[in-house]
Each structure stands twice: as structure tokens, then as C-alpha cells.
Amino acid sequence: MRIERLSQDKIRIFLTFDDLSERGIQKEDMWQEVPKVHDLFTEMMDQAYSELGFDATGPLAVEVFALPAQGMVVIVTRGKYDHSQYGTSGEDELPEDIFEMEVTLEQTDSIVYVFRDFEALVEAAHVLIGNITSQGKLYSYNDKWYLYFDPKDYEEQTLVALVGVLAEFGDASPVTEAVLGEYGKTVMAENAIQTLCTHFKRQQY
Question: What is the pTM of this model?
């Protein structure tokens, strides 16, 4: 489980399928009100508080993006806490776990990874070109590099290997190809991995 702050009132949490399976949760469970999922959200909010000081009491808008072969991205936005709902007799009266969650669940059919460092992108490309893929599209958006792949182009075993390499060098992103195409810049429209390897040498470590 990896947590990062996007703004004062917004955080992003990346859950791998291993994170879910360790807690006995299937991907489909995220669409249901089951105790294990509530426990998972409690754990995520506890970790967000300990790591980032993110206080999750009050109303929360939760967006869950299911990513193929990767896991889930959970974006939590904190709203205003309305004390009038719980009376005015002091904070001791407040319930311990206030999860007034408005949950949005989406399943994306694409694989998108973001790279803040161009050298990491090039390194990933040289690892991928070996025996995984030469395909992919490369976009530039908000001063970052985005690699896009269509899962339908790959067998499941290749998908797992692809995601494994991408996750080592970049971060899974819920940004869709439509957003990248409309608001970003298409740098390499096809065979991005092959093109990167042709024009850029990997760093010597």
C-alpha cells in the first residue's frame, strides 16, 4: 500500500492485488458494503494519518479506480465536517470512525504509468524491449511522461510482466487515454518502447 498527498484535502492510495488478497478481499468486494472493505478503509486512513497527518474524520469523497492486472487507485477527498449533526456537547461525543463516504467506483480498461524522470522512462523501455513489448504510446502531460498500453494486445502472463516492470520505474495512474489525448501532447503515437530504445541509451550504473 502506497500513499501520497495530492493537496491539503486530497490523497491517493495505490493498492496492489497482493494488498487485497492479504486481507482476504477480492476485487469485486470493493463494490460491496462488506466488513473487510470497511476495515481496509480504516487501515488506509490510519496509515494516511500516521504517514501524512491526513485527518479523515468528516465526509469523504472516495474514488476507486480498478486497473487491469495492477490493483486499485483510491483517491480520497476530505470535505467539511458538520458539527451540528452530532450536537454541540464537545468532541468527546463524536463517533470514533466517521466514514460518511461517497464512493465512486470505476474500472478502466487501459494501463497507464506516469514517470516524473525521463531517465527512469528510458530505463523501463530498455527492460521492456528485451522480451515483453516494443509497443505503447507516450504522452507528455503536466510536465510528466505517461506510457499507455492497451491490455487487449497482450496475454495475461505478458500483462503481469509488463506491469511488473512499469511499477518498478513508474507509478500507476488513473488518467485515461482520452484525457492524455485531449489535454496532453502525443509524443510517440505508436511503438513508443522501440522508439525510446532506438534514440536514447540507458544510463550505465
Answer: 0.61
